[in-house]
Design goal:
single chain, mainly alpha, Arc Repressor Mutant, subunit A, 3-stranded antiparallel β-sheet, 7 helices, 3 strands, 7% strand, elongated
Length: 164
């Protein structure tokens, strides 16, 4: 019996009229998310990063050469506000992991690009991150992981429109 089961048992005793399956499902997802987040933060911290800085660097790295995007593109991919992105970029630039490159044609236009240091750091971190994700998901078999991924994708599609 896990923590969520104990909560459900209390509600069942107090409110037997309620169907509690969604409460259990959502409670487990919430608790699992917290455990997974902590597990991933350890890898990020070992590289001097946090989830937010990892997100920006990983987005630039996976964009392909020349590993550069506009701040607007980064905001779209990372789903944060302009102010939040500016703060993240300021911190990463201060560490020498990214640089802002002004357009020759329009001085107001900026591109954010990985530096060589940023590229090396994110490559090392993402390698450990993926290995860590394998460890974090290891309680499920490959078949169970595939089935859970399919179900979560189906559920997520109910909230997010398909992308082009």
């Amino acid at each position: 019996m896990d923590h969520v089961d104990r909560i459900l048992a209390q509600w069942q005793a107090e409110r037997p009229d309620l169907q509690l399956r969604p409460m259990g499902l959502l409670g487990r997802i919430k608790r699992l998310g917290a455990h997974l987040g902590q597990g991933m933060e350890r890898v990020f911290a070992a590289h001097g990063l946090n989830a937010a800085s990892f997100d920006v660097l990983a987005t630039l790295r996976r964009s392909g050469a020349p590993y550069a995007l506009t701040p607007s593109q980064l905001m779209d991919w990372t789903m944060v506000t302009s102010g939040t992105m500016t703060n993240r970029l300021d911190r990463l630039e201060a560490k020498g992991l990214i640089r802002r490159v002004r357009s020759d044609r329009d001085a107001r236009s900026v591109t954010v690009q990985l530096t060589d240091e940023g590229f090396a750091l994110i490559d090392a971190c993402v390698t450990e991150h993926v290995a860590n994700q394998h460890r974090l998901a290891d309680a499920l078999s490959e078949t169970e992981q595939a089935e859970l991924d399919r179900l979560l994708s189906k559920w997520l599609a109910g909230f997010e429109p398909p992308e082009d």
